[in-house]
Amino acid sequence: MAMAVDFGHSGVTVGGGTLSELYQSSRRLLLKTRDGLEKLERCQYTSSSTASSSSSSASSLAIDSSRNLFDSVRKDITQIQSLCSEMDRLWRSVHAKSQRDLWKRKVEQVAEEADSLKDSLNKYDLYNKRRIQEAQERAELLGRANGSSSHVLRIFDEEAQAVQSVRSSSKMVEEALATGTAILSKYSEQRDRLKLIDIQNFELASKSVRRKYRDGNEIKRSVSLYV
Questions:
Q1: CA–CA distance, 176 with 181 (Å, rounded to integer)
Q2: pLDDT tens per residue, range 46-60
Q3: CA 126 – CA 7 distance, rounded (Å)
């Protein structure tokens, strides 16, 4: 609870505010800043646990929201530190030593809390930047892996096409060989048939010649009998 401060006849004010008013403002800002940091930590945990299931648009909105909250918290801490500088000048103007020592401790406490919040914010910022960098590196590696996979798949596809072409060519050769073999077989059959016909014709001719020769001999014998 803020205590009334007797400034005597110094009438010291900063920006129209007394030491007590500045202190109350700093305490409200401390509460607001602490609440903002807690929200940042919750957003950080939520974004880490749901990154795999979130859409790209939802992730972008979450990043923008966190960035806006981060900027707001940083602005509040800067304002608290500015209030501490003003209060540090004011408490030195307090005439009563007991009151002066009391305000000194209060201002120092506010300054320490502000420094602690600033350290926490810096740690969050460092962690967030590292997380974003790691996400970018994973995306690059994934892109390279996808590119390599596409290259490998393209090689496999080309090899499959080559194998299919060889198979088609082999099938065509087999069909050509089968056709040639069938033609040669027909030629062989025709040749054998022609040979058989030639033999039959030769035998018929031989029989005819022998018959004519025999008939000629019989005629000669008949003629010799009448001579």
A1: 8
A2: 666 555 555 555 556
A3: 44
d(CA 141, CA 135) in angstroms, rounded, equals 10
Secondary structure (DSSP) of 81-106 = HHHHHHHHHHHTT-SSHHHHHHHHHH
Per-residue pLDDT reduced to its tens digit, 134-173? 888 888 888 887 766 666 566 656 666 755 665 565 566 5
Asked if 27 and 60 count as a contact pair (C-beta separation under 8 A), the reply is no
- What pLDDT is attached to residue 66? 83
Q: How confident is the prediction for the chain on average, in pLDDT?
A: 76
Which amino acid, residue 226? Y
Please give the domain boundaries of the chain with CATH numbers for all domains.
19-161 (1.20.58)
- Cβ pair 94, 3 in contact under 8 A: no
**pLDDT at res. 181:** 60
What is the C-alpha separation between 189 and 9, in angstroms, rounded? Answer: 140
CA-to-CA distance for 6 and 18, rounded, in angstroms?
10
Kindly list the distances between the CA atom of residue 166 and the CA atoms of 71, 151, 152, 155, in Å, as whole numbers in the listed order: 66, 23, 21, 16
Cβ pair 49, 19 in contact under 8 A: no
What length is written for the chain? 227
Contact (CB, 8 A) for 71 and 115: no
